[in-house]
Every structure is written in C-alpha cells, then in structure tokens.
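Task card 7
Instruction: Convert sequence to structure tokens.
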Amino acid sequence: MNLSDRDKRILKIAGPVLGGILVLFLLYNLFAAGGGPEVASPGPVVPPISPSPSAPVSPSPEPPASPVVVFAGRDPFSIPPVLATSSATSTSTSTSTSTSTSTSTSTATQSQGGNSQDFTGKTIILLDVFSRSGQEMAQVTVNNNPYTVAEGERFAQSFQLIAVSGNCANFLYVEESFTLCSNAPK
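Output:
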C-alpha cells in the first residue's frame, strides 16, 4: 500500500506523540502506586477501652420514616372544570328549607337522559332518583355499567352516593363532591 505525503506527515507527528503519551501513562501508574505492597510494622498493642458502667448507652435515634404520598386529586392531564365547555356549568343543591344554592364544583352535561360527569376516564350518568321502602335511591351508570344505589352506599370502586334531594343526587368521587340532577320529574 502506498502512503501519500499527507499520510506520512501524520505518522511522523502522531507516532511520537502517541508513544510519549503511552510512556507517561506507564510511568505514572508505576511510580504513583508506590512500587508495590508495603508490609506494615506492628506497633504497640493498646487494649480496648470499655465504657464506664455509670454512663448508660442509649440507642442512636433512627431517622423518621418518609411519608407516603397518596394522590387523590384530579388527573393533571384532564381539562380543568373551569375551562371545560358544557351545556350546564353549575349544579344546584337544595336544603330542607327549599332554598337552593348554586355551586360550580363540577361541570355537568346533558346526555342519555340524565346529567353526567367525567372523572379521569370514568363517566357517571344519573338516570333516575326514587324512593324504595322509604330509602332514597339513585340509578346511575358508570362507563355504561348500571348501578342502583342507596344513600351512603359506595359503587364502582371510587364513587359514593351521599344524599338524594328532589330529582338531584349528591355524590362523592374520591374526595371531590358533585351533584347531578335527573331530567325526569318526581
């Protein structure tokens, strides 16, 4: 193989430089390590000191356990309720004195004959509220799975029916309360 003038110049310069780096590397490793293992000479033997009997030994305090973080909020990737567009943006709750207050804690929309609410991929729809044997109940669907629940009962793992008032029902999802109202007159 024929080498060009350029290749010959590179070899003339790079060869001694690489050789020098190799020599420096070897010298550093040989002399920096101390030349080999040394045998330690035995020194005077000192007996161990035992603690005095009057000083009680207390165990060292352990660091406190780190707290367990539990996320019970809303999905950070979902649209905030304030910005969501819907046909009805407020719900109403009524008290025993028949006064109603308007809240905007949840965003209800009309669909399939009842109001609905979306929670991180779970859609709850209130179909009807009724009384059975004096017990207030609600008929709902969560992701198209039907449930007939009484006041205080949990369903679909994360939901709970809190109270029924008129044609509306108050629910709890994890820690967020909301109200849905049925279109059917009572």
